[in-house]
Amino acid sequence: MNRPAEPPRRERPDAPAVVVLGDRRRTGPPALTPGAPGGRPDRADPPDASERAALLAERTADLQRVKAEYDNYRKRVRRDRLAVGEAAVSNVLSGLLPVLDAVDAARALGETGEGFEAVARLLESRLAALGLEPVGEPGDPFDPLVHEAVTSAPDPLRTTPTCARILRPGYRVGTRLLRPAQVAVAVPLIGREARHPFIDREART
User: Fold this and answer.
1) C-alpha to C-alpha distance for 150 and 152, rounded to whole angstroms
2) Which of 41, 52, 96, 202 lies deepest, with the highest CB count within 10 Å?
3) What does each of the 205 residues of the chain score in pLDDT, given as a tens digit?
4) Could you tell me the residue ranges of all domains in the chain?
5) CATH 2.30.22.10 fits 133-204, yes or no
6) Do 162 and 130 contact (CB within 8 A), yes or no?
7) 134: buried, middle or exposed (CB in 10 Å: 19+, 13-18, 0-12)?
C-alpha cells in the first residue's frame, strides 16, 4: 500500500538563510613564475665560442700559475734539505781536520809505518766520499777567497801572485769552504820591489 506523499516542509520565516560557499583553495602546487622568488630561473643562453675560449684561457692560466707555485715550492724544499744536510756534514768534517793535519805532520817527519798509512788512506777515502776536497796546490793563482797568505817572496818569473808552497791545506765541502789554505806566495816584481797590497796586509797580520 503506497504511503501518501509528505507535504513539503516550509521554512520558518524567522530561520536564518544558509549560504554554502565553495572551497576556492588550490589543491595542487602553485604555478611558479620564471624569475620570481622561488620560481624556476630563466634558462641562460649558452656561451658563444669567444666566451668559451676566454673561460678556457683563464682556467688554463690559473692551472699554470698553481703548477709554477708548486714547482717552486718543491725546488725550495729540496734546496733547503740539501743545505741542511751539507751543513751537518760540514760540522762533522770540520772536527776531523786536526786529525788530517796530524797525519800530514807525521808524513812530513817520516814517522809513518805501513799500518799507519793504511789507516790514513782509509780515513782520507771515507772523508772524500762525504764530499771533503782539499784546497790549494803549488802553482795555483793566489785567490784571497780560498788562500791565506802567510808569507810572500819576490819571483821575477811571475806575472801574477802564485801559490809557491802549501803550508797547511785548506778544505771545502761542495761550495762551502771549511778553512782556507795557508800558503807562501810568489809575487811579481813591480819596479825594484815585490808589491801586492793584499798579500802584504795578510802577511803583516
Assistant:
1) 7
2) 202
3) 455 555 555 555 555 555 555 555 555 555 555 555 555 555 555 668 888 888 888 999 999 999 999 999 999 999 888 888 888 888 999 999 999 999 999 998 887 888 899 999 999 999 999 999 999 999 999 999 999 999 999 988 889 999 999 999 999 998 899 999 999 999 998 765 555 545 555 444 4
4) 55-130, 133-204
5) yes
6) no
7) middle
